[in-house]
Amino acid sequence: MAHEPEESVEATHRELVELAARFSQSFGRLMNQPSEDDGLNYHRLGVLEILHCTGPSRMKDLAEALSLSARNLTSLADGLEAEGLVQRAAHPEDRRATLLELTDQGFDVAHRSLEPRLSAFGQLFDRLPAASQRRLASDLRILVEAMDEPC
């Protein structure tokens, strides 16, 4: 009988891992889907949001803030720049750094798109009662912090 609780814990862990993986994959697909209105997925929208809220930013800082590799951010910046939403500029104090800033068109798109798109992403969680949403946010915060700790 002493062995049963361990199996139960192991089964619970297995179920949590499987559900977390399925949620992560499905949520990732949702976040990567471009909007029909503006063609922005979550990461592209994230770049615009940071630039909209804080102004020009070093690409390295943007990559860190969005948990993206430098390569992925460069790819995002290339696409956004090709669409006329952002532009690169030399950093005034650091010749090695490149700033990314919104163009006027990028500011308009960010201003128009941020609120409705972020709200649409969050509507998935409306299926949970408010108390469950708060508990989930707290629990996810704990798990994210645990994963960010060095091994």
Beta strands, count = 3
Main β sheet profile = 3 strands, antiparallel
3D shape: globular
Number of helices: 6
Helical percentage: 55-70%
Beta content: 5-15%
**Structure classification:** mainly alpha
Weakly predicted, low-confidence segments: none
**Rounded average pLDDT:** 88
Strand order of the largest sheet: 1-3-2
How far the N terminus sits from the C terminus, by CA atoms, comes to 34 Å
The gyration radius over C-alpha positions equals: 20 Å
Order of helices and strands: HHEHHEEHH
Task: Describe this entry's structure for a reader.
By secondary structure, this protein is mainly alpha-helical. It is built from six helices and three strands. The chain has helices at residues 3-32, 42-54, 59-65, 70-82, 104-122, 130-148, and strands at residues 57-58, 86-90, 98-102. Strand 2 (86-90) and strand 3 (98-102) form a beta hairpin. Helix 2 (42-54) packs across helix 5 (104-122). It is globular and about 60 Å long.
Q: Would you spell out the secondary-structure blueprint of this structure?
A:
Elements: H1 3-32, H2 42-54, E1 57-58, H3 59-65, H4 70-82, E2 86-90, E3 98-102, H5 104-122, H6 130-148
Helix pairs in contact: 2-5, 3-4
